[in-house]
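stuck on this fold:
=====
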Amino acid sequence: MPYINIKVTDEGVTAEQKKALIRGTTELMVKVLNKTPNTTFVVIDEVNTDNWGIGYEQVTEIRGK
């Protein structure tokens, strides 16, 4: 029972893009590890850019430059 957790910033990821991520990561598990799609869980967490840091800065600050 694979559990896949995808974290992305909350900057306009569409429902269609999320569907594609779920489908694509599930298909990867099926092809590479022979997992059953019905027991493969995919969770997408959208993280506010204030809560995501790279180096010493928040992504919000980096994107503002």
